[in-house]
Amino acid sequence: MTADAVSRRRLLLDGCVNLRDTGGYETADGGSIQFGRLLRSDSPHKLTADGWRHLGEYGVRAVIDLRRPSEMARNGYSPTEDSSVLYHPLPIFDDIEYETVDKPARNLNQLYTLFLENCGPSFVRALRVMIRDGGTSSLVHCAVGKDRTGLTIALALSIAGVANDVIADDYALSETYLAPLYPEWLEQEKTRPDADIERLQNLLQSKHDHMVFAQDLLTRKFDGPQGYLEHAGMKASEMDALKKWLTAA
Questions:
Q1: What is the pLDDT of residues 26-41, one digit of tens each?
Q2: How many other C-beta atoms can be found within 10 angstroms of the C-beta atom of residue 130?
Q3: Domain spanning 3-247: which CATH class is it, in words?
Q4: How many beta carbons lie within 10 A of that of residue 136, not counting itself?
Q5: Do the bridges between strand 20-21 and strand 38-41 make them parallel or antiparallel, or are there none, so unpaired?
Q6: Residue ranges per domain, the chain?
Q7: How far apart are CA 106 and CA 146, in angstroms?
Q8: Which of 27, 50, 113, 145 is the most exposed place for a label (fewest CB within 10 A)?
Q9: Residues 123-134: pLDDT tens digits?
C-alpha cells in the first residue's frame, strides 16, 4: 500500500479515536479495496452533528452497530435528522449470550475462539447489510472497534482476497489508536466491585498475533473464511457480491 493510501485511511473526527477506512489494501488478483466502501471504528456515540455530516459527505450510508443491547442503551446514538446515514443494530451476541461467549474468556485467543464458534450467523447478518441493494458504503463498529469489529472486517477483507498478514496488520492498528485510553479504562475497572484487572489487561490488547490466531482457527476448524461463512449460512453468490462491492472501481 502506498504512503498516500496510508495517510488517507485514518479519519480524525471528534468523538471517535479508532475510525478508519479499509481502502487501499491489495487483493490476491491484483485489485484493491476501494476507499469509501468499508469503514471501521469504535462506538460513534460521542460524534457531534458535524461528525455525522462529515461521514455523510464521505459517502457512508449504513452504520452497523455490533454491540449488545445493553451497550446500545448505555451509549446510544442516532445520526442527525438531516443525515443520509441509516442505523442498523446487529449485535454479534446479546446480553444473555454474553455470559457464555464473552465473559468466560481470560484472553483474546479464548475470546475469539468463543466468538467464531458461536456467532457465525451474526457475522453473516452484518456482511449482508453491506451488500444490500447492490452495496452501500458502510461503517462497522462495536464498543472500541477491535474485537467484534476486527473479526467482521477480517472476514470481509478475506473474502475480497486481502492477504492474512495485511489483515492482521490492519487489526493491530487498533492498539496503536486505543492505547492512550488504556490507563483510564484500567482505573475505571478498579472502581468496580467485581474488578478483574488481569482479564482487562489481556483483553485490551490487539496485536498482530491475535488475528493470526483467529485466522489459523478459521483454517483449522472451518476450511478458511469462505468455509466458515458458508457453514454460517452465507451463499457463494453473496460472497461474490461482497468481493465485487469492496473492489470494483
A1: 999 999 999 999 999 9
A2: 23
A3: alpha beta
A4: 16
A5: antiparallel
A6: 3-247
A7: 16
A8: 50
A9: 999 999 999 978
